[in-house]
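Example is below:
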Amino acid sequence: MITHRSLHGCVLNSNALALAGITIETPELPGTMIDRDVSKGGEPNGFLAEMVGYLREHIMPPISGRELKSGIKLATNNILRQGLNLASGRYLC
């Protein structure tokens, strides 16, 4: 799942949609939106609005501190391999 920093939208690949149980028959929860591909009969295309909290609370398993540390290390190494070695700005945490 890739989440927009506003937490109002996210994108899931087809495997994540399947794991979340989101199919062509899945109704939208009140206040949410499942973007659908009209050319494929309304099949979800992976963009979801206002569903990040639901997915994190009800679908995604919690991650351990060890998994978080491993993920941060993996992401950092990947960023460094791409040549990024400095980041600054008021929106960075």
Observations:
- The two ends are 20 Å apart (CA to CA).
- The mean pLDDT is 90.
- Residues 65-81 form the longest helix (17 residues).
- Residues 66 and 72 are 10 Å apart (CA to CA).
